[in-house]
Amino acid sequence: MEKKNTAQLEELQALRERALQGGGADRIAKQHAKGKLTARERLEKLLDPGTFQELQSFMITPGEGQVTPGDGVVTGYGELDGRTVYVYAQDFTVYGGSVSLTHARKICRIMDLAVSSGCPVIGLLDSGGARIQEGIRALQGYGEIFRRNALASGIIPQISVTLGPCAGGASYSPALTDFVIMTNKTSVMFITGPNVVKSVTGEIITQEALGGAMAHFTKSGVASLVGQNEEDSLALVRKLLSYLPSNNVETPPCAPTGDDPNRSEERLNTIIPEKPNIPYEMHEVIELIVDQGSFFEVQSGWAPNAIVGFARLDGNAVGIVAQQPMYLAGVIDINASDKISRFVRFCDAFNIPLITFVDSPGFLPGPLQEHGGIIRHGAKIIYAYVEASVPKISIVTRKGYGGAYIVMGSKSLGADLHLAWPSAELAVMGPQGAVNILKRRELARAKDPQALRAELVADYRKKFSNPYRAAEYGILDAVIEPAKTRPTLIAALRALREPVRQLPPKKHGVMPV
């Protein structure tokens, strides 16, 4: 009996060793030569030491000549800063990390467990694509992953980290997740590669230019964050998760920062330029208000006229949405609309209060925007804010004109608290445009139209576009001293918490997409 037990243990150990070797020493050396870690090395760096528990390490694709336990993907669970997370890491040293039906079902198993356990799921992607020799079975596997991505959306946070290639249909899985972290000069994502592009269009383009990290960070908006190397990308996962709850019924983790909740910032009283056409740095406004050093921006390279990210106020996580006067004067365009609406919906799904800083002269005009569907895309922001049930606070710092004012979490869309600084201008349009329309006849008859226009603009500002008129109507809840914004927001969040709202029953709405 003892010999039998010993033999069984030896067999188990041999299988474990075989699984741990991945594609073998030669392929691991090639992986390292590219400056890339192996799947298991990545998991060791991502998770708290000694916490990873592997599952289904012996699974194989039946009938393959070279049998490698694990089938090219390492799956399991562990702890990240003491919180349980479910993980999978594709192993490029085994079949190039290609996805078979077995490979896919290992990933699906992890995702099912993550949902049932209420824990985040993190995917480390490094794959050559579908395993061609599997044919339709590989495509079936991809479809099963996509289905779980969609079903898990809004229940648990899903984070994808691309650490190598992610091509063809495989790229739809990260696109379905909440955040995509790419690695500069290492990871690429595209539906059709350079060879296909050349054969169809004749255009010659490199993989990096077509689907590299910076292409998706600055042009497509697919990449939420970019790490400069693998270690940096994995560190970004840890930082991102520090703001997120494990599931949609938990509150976000609180991390006291020691920053005084009653801190005032006199710099805010003078940060808005006297001339309305001079820009200022909205990042500085945000940094002065939130807990020091806590602002964590996402998608900063794409649609920079809009700012979205996470921060802390008195240690509690909040979602920040703002416009950036330093870029296109903070106008809203198609890309900014998509960026804002998706972020608002994410925060609402995971119980993260929303703070909106409003300073926009309007929507970007022009046939390219109109024909591109700015009406449809802008409507997404309205839908997202109206549907959101988390505490919503908006602050108009300077310009809030027309439809751009309405869509940015205004009182009419359901803001729980609507504030403004004394510098705020709230009107259908800017004073210059309004005067040109309302007083065009007077201006045409004037001996000195420039002087008259300046006088009329000043009068319009005094009568119509200052915040006190909106406060008189009860549209603004308060006009506050900029320096007191931080303690005002913290007190408001303590009072609001999670509002109880009863919406009419329905299966779901039809969001403009």
Count of strand segments: 17
CATH topology of the largest domain: 2-enoyl-CoA Hydratase, Chain A, domain 1
Radius of gyration: 27 Å
CATH architecture of the largest domain: Alpha-Beta Complex
Shape descriptor reads elongated
Helix content: 40-55%
CATH superfamily of the largest domain: 2-enoyl-CoA Hydratase, Chain A, domain 1
What ranges have pLDDT less than 50 throughout 5 or more consecutive residues? Answer: none
Approximately what portion of the residues adopt beta-strand conformation?
A: 15-25%
> Tell me, what is the CATH class of the largest domain?
Alpha Beta
Mean pLDDT: 91
Count of discrete domains: 3
Given helix and strand content, the structural type is alpha/beta
- Count of helix runs: 20
Terminal Cα span: 66 Å
Largest pleated sheet: 8 strands, mixed
Walkthrough of the structure:
- There is one protein chain.
- The chain is α/β, with parallel strands linked by helices.
- The protein folds into three domains: 2-241, Alpha-Beta Complex (2-enoyl-CoA Hydratase, Chain A, domain 1); 266-424 and 466-496, 2-enoyl-CoA Hydratase, Chain A, domain 1; 430-465, no CATH class.
- It is built from 20 helices and 17 strands.
- The strands form three sheets. Strands 10, 11, 12, 13, 14, 15, 16 and 17 form an eight-stranded mixed sheet that branches. It has a seven-stranded mixed sheet with strand order 1-2-3-4-5-7-9, with helices on both faces.
- Helix 4 (101-117) packs parallel to helix 5, helix 12 packs parallel to helix 14 and helix 16 (431-438) packs across helix 18 (449-465).
- The radius of gyration is 27 Å and the shape is elongated.
- The N and C termini lie far apart (66 Å).
- The mean pLDDT is 91.
